[in-house]
Design goal:
With 367 residues, the protein is α/β, with parallel strands linked by helices. It folds into two domains: 1-31, no CATH class; 34-366, 3-Layer(aba) Sandwich (Rossmann fold). 41% of the residues lie in helices and 10% in strands. It contains twelve helices and ten strands. The chain has helices at 2-18, 54-57, 83-90, 131-149, 151-160, 169-178, 184-207, 225-229, 240-263, 274-283, 338-350, 361-366, and strands spanning 35-39, 110-112, 162-166, 212-216, 268-272, 292-296, 298-299, 320-321, 328-330, 356-358. The structure holds 2-acetamido-2-deoxy-beta-D-glucopyranose (4 copies). Residues 312, 314, 316 line the site of one 2-acetamido-2-deoxy-beta-D-glucopyranose. InterPro entries: GDSL, GLIP1-5/GLL25, SGNH_hydro_sf, SGNH_plant_lipase-like.
């Protein structure tokens, strides 16, 4: 019945739109689950084009970013689709536009607040859309939904939605750059501070109506070409010092989410073990259909770790770019190719509990 009335409502809306009676709004249905995305450059759909800081505005706004799928640079730090783009498609939702993009938005589908350079802590990369600012945008979305749909239906949208996160890498890059020789004690303290701030944001999302949280945990940061290009002593090995911060974070993250589930009625979650999934691809690229797992497709210097897309004023390219990004795990010095993202998104969507658990995203959407 719900489906029939939904279809009926859709037809009415199309007619109404043709007759210009009402603005084209999406019909609300119980089947329709929204996706809200919080995060950093791995998930940014182009929000950075609209931020104040010029150094952030230009991230991935030049060729060859976007060459594979969108055919033009969109601000995604990738040759094509990112993980949340693919998850939206798996969930039969449209690809979510940048939240900061001017114009009307259909928040019944969700919203993507992710922004390159951002972290959990407000001290990380000043000027970025840090996690707390992303949360304030989510609060504005809730208000907008309440005005459009009324309190009850807005609440149903937020309760049914899935909230997807990729955040924390930038906090640890910043920390590692500032304190390369931090003691075990200070590393532990820092990770706890990041986790505490993250936890308080998750609790607020719960209080605002969020129930289903999904995380891509932090990847093997020391294997990132940009990190390796700065330390010639490493050879082809990964920098374990910074990866160890990621591992510690990931351990605390699973403890915290487990605790939240037992304390907050209706709270359900999913953690995709991006760390191990990606480290295995770096070490055994051919097992996953890649020719190259260490160097990036686009960039210059060791491992093509930097300057993808950079040109001089006279038009001289400062980078090389591979002819087939599908053969590469990394597109630029810190971000996977679309073909790598496709494998990652599939694991997040319906991976088995060893890699994505206790629920995967497909199951979260069905709950
Ligand atoms: C940009 O600046 C405006 C005005 O100062 C401010 O309201 C807004 O929050 C800023 N945006 C970001 C992303 O910092
Ligand atoms: C960190 O330790 C290395 C030796 O392990 C040393 O070469 C380097 O100067 C130290 N860096 C700082 C910022 O203290
Ligand atoms: C969040 O991080 C700040 C530092 O950015 C720290 O002072 C504060 O205590 C943290 N908040 C929580 C709830 O841990
Ligand atoms: C363009 O500028 C670069 C240095 O920025 C220089 O090496 C190169 O020769 C210049 N090319 C032309 C065609 O002027």
């Amino acid at each position: 019945m719900a489906n029939l009335s939904f279809i009926f409502c859709e037809i009415l809306m199309i007619l109404a739109t043709i007759l210009l009676v009402v603005e084209p709004v999406k019909c609300y249905s119980k089947q329709h689950k929204a996706l809200f995305v919080f995060g950093d450059s791995l998930y940014d759909p182009g929000n950075n084009k609209y931020v104040n800081e010029t150094y952030l505005k230009v991230i991935a706004t030049m060729w060859p970013y976007g060459e594979t799928y969108f055919k033009h640079p969109t601000g995604r730090v990738c040759d094509g689709r990112t993980v949340p783009d693919l998850i939206a498609q798996f969930a039969k939702l449209p690809i979510l536009p940048p939240y900061l993009q001017p114009g009307t938005h259909r928040f019944t589908d969700g919203a993507n607040f992710a922004s390159g350079g951002s972290g959990v802590l407000s001290e990380t990369h000043p000027g970025t859309v840090r996690l707390r600012l992303q949360l304030s945008y989510f609060k504005a979305v809730k208000e907008s939904l309440k005005q459009k749909l009324g309190d009850e239906k807005a609440k149903n949208v937020l309760n049914g939605a899935v909230y997807l996160f990729s955040i924390g890498s930038n906090d640890y890059f910043s920390f590692y750059r500032t304190y390369p020789n931090a003691s075990q004690f200070y590393k532990g303290k820092f990770v706890k501070m990041v986790i505490a701030n993250l936890t308080s944001v998750l609790k607020e999302i719960y209080d605002l109506g969020g129930r289903k949280i999904a995380f891509q945990n932090i990847g093997p940061l020391g294997c990132i070409p940009a990190v390796k290009s700065f330390d010639s002593k490493l050879g082809s090995a990964c920098a374990d010092e910074v990866s160890s911060l990621a591992r510690l974070h990931n351990r605390y993250l699973s403890i915290v989410l487990n605790k939240l589930e037992s304390h907050l009625p209706g709270f359900k979650y999913s953690i995709f073990d991006f760390y191990n999934a990606f480290a295995d691809r770096v070490n055994n690229p051919s097992k996953y259909g890649f020719k190259e797992g260490k160097a990036a497709c686009c960039g210059s210097g060791a491992y093509r770790g930097e300057k993808c897309g950079w040109t001089t004023i006279n038009g001289t390219k400062l980078y090389q770019v591979c002819s087939n990004p599908r053969e590469y795990l990394w597109f630029d010095g810190a971000h996977p190719t679309e073909s790598a993202n496709f494998q990652l998104a599939k694991l997040l969507w319906n991976g088995d509990p060893k890699i994505t658990g206790p629920y995967n995203m497909k199951q979260l959407f069905k709950l």
